[in-house]
């Protein structure tokens, strides 16, 4: 009994877009379903099918879905903002982080002054509640007004940013 | 490949493609010959044609910034082949949440100290007036004053508390592809994905930077890592919540003791 090949209606979005036959081992098929045609269209427009295919081949199969989703996000960002793409979002978040860190440093300094000049605040059990000023800043992210971020772990299972976010030396000393 | 009769070297793009690098090569300013890896990353992610396509639709003053963002994005993708810049954005969101929580806790603690000082100052005034034999204070007014302090808004009006939803949610809010990421690697992010604003609002934010120029100067791709410390546990935050009612009891006790002094004085 002849096993018929599936008709074009079961082609993935990528093969439909590229107008080619979708084979059973099509690398795009699991991640670009036929009901999401714009997803592949955007990725193809920004990165190209060939590049996406090469990127997917290089990552483990269990991580390909995440890879495709990240590429789709970046493609959409680049289409919306051809100049900065998703880098604009990163810049915005980094700036926000810096401002928050400054606020936190100021608040902690004020708290330290209060703690030094005031009696300790006790809880219902009569125990002294901890003084935030004595604890290190969150995640070790602040060091002399420079943001220094994260770990050398390059495994994809835990996302770490090996980017040193900082200001030029002239600003760091201010 | 060098220029005919010239001394300048072909750019990394033309070297890679093994073609002549003319003086009008559009990519030559961005891919110096001594940094082949940079071009390889950009070529791997975008490809020369796509890069040129992006550039041709931009004004000349935007092309340099666009190229810098393309190169940066490609370098990130080279380091993080799976998550790329998306992973960094998620991580930044998480870190911002952590810092915001810590800031809120510190501000709450600060407010308690301020209230404590205000109550102490108030009771000192009452005591000194009693000692001087002045007219008795209105207990109800004093009580209202202290209660108004306690009941006042503890929240600190940080710019980020209001803008957080606008910025953070705009990046992921309704993104249709944001539902299938690896929950094991980013469990926190799911709680942050609240619907609302599309990426268009991000566009508005981005267009406001003229300070994107210094932004790329500050990004140092050379790795200088510091181990992240564990985020500060919120157990102290819980104990802060426990102190709020104790502050009210302290205020009431202060008033009662002040009233007791008043009673003794009046007998005399």
Oligomer: heterodimer
Terminal residue distance of chain A: 80 Å
Radius of gyration of chain A: 25 Å
- The percentage helix of chain B is 55-70%
Low-pLDDT ranges of chain B: 140-215, 217-248, 258-268
Number of helices of chain A: 6
What general outline of chain A do the C-alpha atoms trace? elongated
Assign a percent range to the helix content of chain A: 40-55%
**Percentage of residues in strands of chain A:** under 5%
Q: Spatial order of the strands in the main sheet of chain A?
A: 1-2
Largest interface: A-B, 90 and 100 residues
Structural class of chain A: mainly alpha
Strand-pairing-aware structural class of chain B: mainly alpha
Order of helices and strands of chain A: HHHHHEEEH
Run of helices and strands of chain B? HHHHHHHHHHEH
Largest sheet of chain B: none
Rough outline of chain B: rod-shaped
Uncertain runs of chain A are 139-174
Structural overview:
By secondary structure, chain A is mainly alpha-helical. Among the domains of chain A are: 13-80, no CATH class; 83-117. Chain A is built from six helices and three strands; from the N terminus they run H-H-H-H-H-E-E-E-H. Chain A has a two-stranded antiparallel ribbon. In chain A, strand 1 (142-143) and strand 2 form a beta hairpin. In chain A, helix 2 crosses helix 4 (64-80). The longest helix of chain A has 31 residues, at 87-117. Chain A is elongated, with a radius of gyration of 25 Å. Chain A starts with 12 loop residues before the first helix and ends with a helix. In chain A, 38% of the residues are buried. Residues 139-174 of chain A have low confidence and may be disordered. By secondary structure, chain B is mainly α. Among the domains of chain B are: 10-79, no CATH class; 85-127. In chain B, 29% of the residues are buried. Mean pLDDT of chain B is 66; it is low at 140-215, 217-248 and 258-268.
């Amino acid at each position: 009994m002849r096993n018929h090949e599936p008709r074009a209606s079961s082609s993935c979005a990528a093969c439909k877009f590229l107008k080619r036959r979708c084979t059973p081992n099509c690398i795009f098929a699991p991640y670009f379903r036929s009901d999401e045609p714009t997803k592949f269209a955007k990725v193809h427009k920004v990165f190209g099918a060939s590049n996406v295919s090469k990127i997917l081949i290089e990552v483990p199969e269990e991580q390909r879905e995440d890879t495709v989703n990240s590429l789709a996000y970046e493609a959409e960002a680049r289409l919306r903002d051809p100049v900065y793409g998703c880098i604009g979002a990163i810049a915005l978040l980094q700036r926000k982080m810096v401002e928050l860190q400054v606020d936190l440093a100021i608040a902690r300094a004020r708290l330290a002054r209060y703690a030094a000049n005031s009696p300790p605040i006790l809880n219902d059990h009569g125990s002294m509640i901890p003084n935030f000023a004595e604890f290190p800043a969150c995640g070790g992210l602040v060091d002399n007004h420079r943001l220094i971020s994260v770990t050398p772990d390059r495994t994809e299972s835990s996302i770490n940013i090996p980017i040193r976010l900082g200001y030029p030396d002239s600003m760091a000393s201010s | 490949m060098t220029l005919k009769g010239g001394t300048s070297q072909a750019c990394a793009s033309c070297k890679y493609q093994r073609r002549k690098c003319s003086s009008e090569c559009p990519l030559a300013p961005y891919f110096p010959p001594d940094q082949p890896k940079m071009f390889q990353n950009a070529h791997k992610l975008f490809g020369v044609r796509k890069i040129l396509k992006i550039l041709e639709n931009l004004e000349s003053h935007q092309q340099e910034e666009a190229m810098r963002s393309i190169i940066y994005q490609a370098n990130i993708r080279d380091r993080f082949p799976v998550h790329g810049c998306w992973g960094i954005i998620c991580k930044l969101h998480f870190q911002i949440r952590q810092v915001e929580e810590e800031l809120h806790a510190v501000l709450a603690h600060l407010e308690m100290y301020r209230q404590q000082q205000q109550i102490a100052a108030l009771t000192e005034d009452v005591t000194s007036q009693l000692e001087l034999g002045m007219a008795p204070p209105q207990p109800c007014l004093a009580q209202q004053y202290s209660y108004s302090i306690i009941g006042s808004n503890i929240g600190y009006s940080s710019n980020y508390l209001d803008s957080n939803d606008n910025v953070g949610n705009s990046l992921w809010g309704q993104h249709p592809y944001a539902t299938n990421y690896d929950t094991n690697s980013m469990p926190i992010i799911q709680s942050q994905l609240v619907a609302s604003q599309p990426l268009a609002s991000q566009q508005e934010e981005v267009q406001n930077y003229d300070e994107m120029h210094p932004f790329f100067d500050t990004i140092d791709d050379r790795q200088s890592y510091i181990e992240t410390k564990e985020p500060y546990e919120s157990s102290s935050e819980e104990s802060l919540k426990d102190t709020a009612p104790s502050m009210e009891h302290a205020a009431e006790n202060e008033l009662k003791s002040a009233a007791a002094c008043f009673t003794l004085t009046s007998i005399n």
